[in-house]
Amino acid sequence: MTRATTTSRGYGASHQRMREKYKPLVESGQALCARCQEPIAPGALWELDHSDDRSEYIGPSHRTCNRRAGQAKATAARMAKAATTVRDW
Ligand SMILES: [Zn+2]
After folding, report:
1. What pLDDT score was predicted for residue 63?
2. Tens digit of pLDDT at every position of the chain (89 positions)
3. How open is the CA angle 28-72-88, to the nearest 5 degrees?
4. CA–CA–CA angle 29, 57, 74 (5° rounding)
5. Ligand 1 centroid vs 62 CA: distance in angstroms?
6. Residue 7 C-alpha to ligand 1 middle, in angstroms?
7. 36 alpha carbon to ligand 1 midpoint, in Å?
């Protein structure tokens, strides 16, 4: 007996099905980015975005917005660490 492991990792069949569901909307130019609320141009790079705790899909977002959100979190963590370092010093 074989078990599918891709679905349990969050990027399996259901993710692909959701992406397929949004694809016609994005390609028609009617989708709004879940992060910046600006329209996603047909043919633009986009991703099916998750909420920050990755518990649910929030819809399509620009790839740049998605990446920026991840980076902002990393930067905030880095700055928080830097602030403590400065205080210690
Ligand atoms: Zn955006």
Report:
1. 96
2. 555 555 555 568 888 899 999 999 999 999 999 999 999 999 999 999 998 888 899 999 999 999 988 888 889 999 998 887 766 55
3. 180
4. 100
5. 4
6. 27
7. 4
Ligand 1 mean position, distance from CA 48 (Å): 12
Cα 54 to middle of ligand 1, angstroms: 18
Task: Tell me the C-alpha distance between 27 and 5, whole Å.
Answer: 30
* CA geometry: angle 37, 44, 23, nearest 5 deg: 80
Ordered by start, the domain boundaries in the chain are 7-88
